[in-house]
Amino acid sequence: MGKIVSLEYFRVPPRWLFVKIADEAGNIGWGEASLEGHTQAVEGCLDAWTERYIGFEADDIEHIWQMCWRTSFYRGGPVFMSALSGIDIALWDLKARRLGVPIYQLLGGKVRDKLKVYAWIGGDRPADVGIQAQARKDQGFSSVKMNGTEDLGWLDSPSALEDCVERLKTVKALGMDAGIDFHGRVHKPMAKQLAKALEPHHPLFIEEPLLSEHIEGIKAIAQLTSCPIALGERLHSRWDVRPFLEAGCVDILQPDVSHCGGISEMKRIAGMCEAYDVALAPHCPLGPIALAACVQVDATCANFAIQEMSLGIHYNAGAQDLTSYTKNPEVWQVKEGYIELMKGPGLGIEIDETQVRELSKDAKAWVSPGFIGPGGEIREW
């Protein structure tokens, strides 16, 4: 055991925020506190906490989690919980590396040896997806996800939905499954129509059919369609998740390990979901540390269904991708729709700290795109 002596964070392209914690014995662990479009806010939170938690026993992960949660008075929300996520993941990595075992061994052990995965196609303004879907199939994927629509008005032309159906049919014709992400950009008058239009073509799931602030609307859509409903990236704790489970309006829960309080909280959320017969499919359009953390939890959960991967995602434009910042990127090789469970200690990935430090110099914070409608109005991105 050893006391925490340092906490550092690194803003790196394309839009990630890595956290490094070291103890007095020289053990280190890496976490990811990425919060897309709000990097500076999370950095401010980490600045405020850095000195506060120096001197705590690095092994006391739950105690530190509870300190972060309960002694701040104001709790929850994306910024606070993303900062906590980075710390929590790093502490699990440090402890498991010190003990020489994968994190999943400390979470009760694995229940599977490989995990089903999916990748993105289409981008924010979906176009012809046939070539992209075939490329993913050639990479070894059997499932993909794509945005359902471009920006929409509250009440838009029904013709704006027809392209989504055609794109789903294109992917299905290749023998692949496809999840359709409404991305919270589709409002109820259009979401009802889109869910019904997609239903005969059997999407793998429909994601965020409405924003999670509209639980009554999500309940109504759940009663309207047989399409499995997935959501959860904007739910930041077990307390945020609970009303959706109690309402019976979610079939697939998608917590984000970098937004929901880290490995500790994702494991608790997964257990809650199992009690409600809800599948786990963690949200992760982020970096290799976040994905590795998801994998460690996925390996231990009976209700795990499928894992999102950011390999080649449209947000990773440029030189950096999921395979960056690590010395063993081969762990992300996809075969017949699956990746093998990593067997190395901690997160199972080896961070290239030299590259992290070099590319963090003068790294710009990523800015979330926005959509402007034809009348000059702001639309949901």
From TrEMBL:
Name under which the protein is recorded: Mandelate racemase/muconate lactonizing protein-like protein
UniProt-listed SUPFAM superfamilies: Enolase C-terminal domain-like, Enolase N-terminal domain-like
Gene3D superfamilies according to UniProt: Enolase-like C-terminal domain (3.20.20.120), Enolase-like, N-terminal domain (3.30.390.10)
A single BP term in Gene Ontology: D-galactonate catabolic process
Keywords per UniProt: Lyase, Magnesium, Metal-binding
Needed co-factor(s): Mg(2+)
Domain (Mandelate racemase/muconate lactonizing enzyme C-terminal) ranges: 126-228
Top-level taxon in the UniProt lineage: Eukaryota
InterPro entries per record: DgoD-like, Enolase-like_C_sf, Enolase-like_N, Enolase_C-like, Galactonate_deHydtase, Mandel_Rmase/mucon_lact_enz_CS, Mandelate_racemase_C, Mandelate_racemase_N_dom
PANTHER family: D-GALACTONATE DEHYDRATASE, D-GALACTONATE DEHYDRATASE-RELATED
Keyword flag DNA repair: no
Molecular function in Gene Ontology: galactonate dehydratase activity; metal ion binding
